[in-house]
Amino acid sequence: INAEYMGAGAHLAYTRGQQMIGWPLAQGIVNATIRGHTGLVELDDWGNRLHAKHVVWNFAEPLREAFVWYGPGHLQLIAPPVWPGGATTRPPLTPTLLTVVCWFPFERFPTILPVLERTFAAINADDGMLRDVFLRLHPVEFGGQDTLAETMNTVMSKQHVVAVVGGEDSSGTVVASLLASLLSLPILSFSAASPDLSNKLLYPTFSRVIPPDTQQARVLLAVVVHFGWRNIAVIYSQDAYGMSFLNALHDNLPPNITIRAHEAITNKVSRSARSLQLRMLERLKNARIRWILCAITDPAMTNSLLKLAVEVDMMEDYAWLSTDRVLDIDHMPPGLLVTFAGGTSDARNSSNHTTLISRTAFQESLAYEAVAHLANVLHRLTSLDRDVFNRSLILSELRTTVTTSHLGTIQLDPNGDRLNHPFSVFNNQPNKGWVEVMHWTPTGLSVLRNVVWPANTDLTPQNSPNLLAIGIMNELQEHDYVPMLNFALDTINAQPNLLPGRKLRCECIFIYWLTHPLTHSSTDSLIH
């Protein structure tokens, strides 16, 4: 080849009328092109050969050419290689190890960590989900003994960290998202639902597989509209979760519905909190608002509130609707309505239409969806031979990739919020447990079956008083027959078919101006 090429270079210099020595000969050699028995021979400006053919030999019986390489992007398979031991399938590769940091408040770690461990094990065991990639779970306790600086240092010191999964509540996730943005780390949450986290100026790397509270507020308002209610009350936590829910209600409130009262409560069960709750329930009772929407972060506080509502007789003639936070409560009063993010086709298609729901199962499902979506993104990047350690690329793919899991379709909008996520509305019915009574999608609310209200009736509570008062005009000294009348009313109220959904009560109106001169006090008494 050298001889042929030198000759071709000399010939090129000769045809140009140049001397065939020194620089003219060198130029001729660089610019010459020949096609020899080894293929095209051509040099670049630096004298290096272009388009050289390389052969990859396979030392098997017999010796064979496995591949021929003609240049970047031009590899031709000649014969499938035979691997050591005579195998025709390629040996398993050492998987790419990717670390996913899971970030949660320390007080929730004992319940969240087992869920994530099961989720990561299921994802890594799925050959169709991640090929040649292994996801490693690295839990980080947010809070407790760790300072923010120590937490950041822990994340930065870990190799191959590609994303953060976590933030169990909205308040903690706000801080975690700010730290993740400083590290340019994508953070994918399955439980933080505050609409504030949709602000990409403050939280540019945050995404979630759970719908924001704006959607849950829309579902509850759809239920309110369905039953024709006009005046509602809202009880919410005095934190990011509760405030964002209240704002979402106001933003989506139909013109014919009024929030007559809204009460904020703290997330701390104490003797003073009980006293405050009693006064709050008394205010709602006096306002005669019987449709109450709850968005309370702490399940223990919700449990305390509902127990007090039973004590003060604010359950049977009322409609209580709540977000899914109450799913942490083991024993809830019957008649409660709860929104639940996700489709439950098994419940709708079963013969008894009954399913057991729990907050733990709910979080486990969403945790699986979060990790499955992240795994699908990484699988897509590896299949396209893209850089799986490029955090900006991962963030972009999280918001554009569509993942189909056994739980449904996962698709995020440009803000990283879940799109088109369905909701179920469950009703805690006596002797049946949780029954799915409604199903909501962005196209509307579908009614599956009747709601059983706290009074164990399908008659919808109304703001017109269900408790009917009978006034007794009586002189002050003569009220001995009042206990007899109360006994009669109790007998009537005990017959459910006589006044369904209603109760009678006796209220004495003491009129003593009939036998005494008229005064302002007696007139006020009569008007009252």
Which secondary structure elements does this structure contain, and how are they paired or packed?
Blueprint: H1 2-15, H2 22-31, E1 33-36, E2 39-43, E3 49-50, E4 54-58, E5 64-71, E6 74-77, E7 96-105, H3 109-125, E8 133-142, H4 148-157, E9 161-166, H5 170-182, E10 187-189, E11 206-208, H6 213-226, E12 231-237, H7 240-252, E13 258-265, H8 271-286, E14 291-295, H9 299-311, E15 319-322, E16 337-341, H10 345-349, H11 359-383, H12 391-398, E17 403-405, E18 408-410, E19 423-429, E20 433-441, E21 444-447, E22 467-474, H13 482-493, E23 503-510, H14 520-527
Parallel strand pairs: 7-8, 7-9, 9-10, 10-11, 12-13, 12-14, 14-15, 15-16, 22-23
Antiparallel strand pairs: 1-2, 2-3, 4-5, 5-6, 16-19, 17-18, 19-20, 20-21
Helix pairs in contact: 1-2, 3-11, 6-7, 8-9
Provide the descriptors you would attach to this structure in a database record.
single chain; 528 residues; alpha/beta; eight-stranded mixed β-sheet; 14 helices
Biggest sheet character: 8 strands, mixed
How many alpha or pi helices?
A: 14
Total beta strand runs: 23
Q: Any idea what the shape is?
A: elongated
Mean residue pLDDT: 77
* Order of neighbouring strands in the sheet with most strands: 13-12-14-15-16-19-20-21
> Which structural class is indicated by helix and strand composition?
alpha/beta
Strand content: 15-25%
Distance between the termini: 117 Å
> Which blocks of ≥5 consecutive residues have pLDDT under 50?
344-356, 512-516
Helix fraction? 25-40%
Radius of gyration: 36 Å
